[in-house]
Design a protein that fits this description.
62% helix, 434 Repressor (Amino-terminal Domain), 6 helices, mainly alpha, 0% strand
Length: 136
Amino acid sequence: MTAYQMKEVAQEYRRLRAVVPLGTLRTKKDYVRATDMLDAILDEIGEDEKHPLAELADALGVFVEKYEAEHVRVPEAKPVAVLKFLMREHGLRQADLPEIGSQGVVSEVLADRRELNARQIKRLAKRFGVSPAVFV
């Protein structure tokens, strides 16, 4: 790579970083910004793993997951309790959980009348950047 190309890459990276908080998340503000951006990207790409932003979501998820592992204590609890905890941490309501399904299904899960299935667990783990094991 030439010096000119390296300079161009650095400029483009700085522009991207102004919008997307890539890199180590050092503060709660960085974390909130990153999770908001990750949520927006996931809303945009849906289930399309070949979407141009899918790799960006994966990268951002790594930084969010690292921050949560170091700074966010997820209590050992029943899956519904973990889900409620994560919802509070992310300021989410029932309507904000399309990963689970319809409002009725979300209500049943949160009322502990219905268990999460494998598909729902996978989607929630990806959304929150946590191990699927927390929902099992």
